[in-house]
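job 3f2a | input accepted
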Amino acid sequence: MPYINRGSRTARPTFNGQPRPGGARGRNRRPQQGGRGAKRAPNTIHPSKYINKAIQKTEEVAYVPENTFSDFPFGPELAKNIADKGYTSPSPIQDQAIIPILNRQDVIGLANTGTGKTAAFLLPIIELLRGIALRPSVLIVTPTRELAQQIDAEFRAFAKGMGLYSTLVVGGMNIDRQIRDLRRNPHVIIGTPGRLIDLLERHELHCGKMGVLVLDEADRMLDMGFLPNIRRIVSEMPKSRQTLFFSATMTPEIEALTSQFLDNPVTVSVRTAETSDHVEQDVIEYASQDHKYELLLDMLRKDHYDKVLVFCGKKYGAQRLADKLNKTEIAAAAIHGNKSQSQRTRALEAFKTGKVSVLVATDVAARGLDIPNVSHVINYDTPQVYEDYIHRIGRTGRGGARGHAHTFVGK
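job 3f2a | predicted structure (411 res):
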């Protein structure tokens, strides 16, 4: 098999709606090209960018947190739920972001994928919600349905027994049920931009008194053409609010957004390298499409390829590849935009629980999904831009574990 393996290269009130110091937020509306689902022009990525030797754990300087979870001023119910999940030492983003959020400051969180940022904003939000009568109080906006579902599941686990409720509002699911859930006035609303706009236009979503806005995976939402939707959502929120802004990258566009949406934010940056030091990255050269498929089969039949995420560029290509693999008795499932939400959820659960060993996906699975113990990521089709590559391979080597990423390139 023709592998190429080279060396690397102050507390401010927000929930009660009182004004905060620091002046009004800028609300300049800039014209945006494209729109929801806007396509990006593909960049040419040199194959050398897909090659990197993983660093052995013995060479690491381990991060030493300033706090333990027991040091944070959490109430007994939340503290118990944290302990029940086995959390003891916070990750860097959690260690540095929780206290500013508890102090009701605006926060910009910059972190690589797989660093525990969801808990970094959920835990202090849950603590701040204790005893708050205003409902709903928090709006969390994410780019994909899967990430929204994951955040909702984590919220429910951390808020267990605390009398706090969330509602999930995403596309691909019954909007009438979501409207009924909204009318019950949950504490937290978690949604994707398109469905949130739909509910705003139906006058079923009311954001005028909500005290906290979380924008998660903000760079991905811009990539997907959601900027006009985000601006509309933010315009419905009160000027006096707490805004938490999480992104893996800080592009000029992201920096412009933070200057408009946030008030005197605290920046927490725990980014390290572009790609995880724990992910061994190589390219695989192929001569034809048939040869490419045969190489993939050879890899998947090896014992150590036990939980593999395969990325394709197109929806139909992902489905076709999954169907072909199943015919060769390699248990595979597909996840892409043509699947209903229930189908996507079942496929993801089958992969997580080991019912299938291969998940074939488009970039809908590249960001935010916490899939444990992915042994390999295979880029069957090369990504459009390098940022997509970073997030694809971020599905393996999570939490400091060792991972492997292979990218097919034509000879």
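job 3f2a | The two ends are 13 Å apart (CA to CA).
job 3f2a | closed
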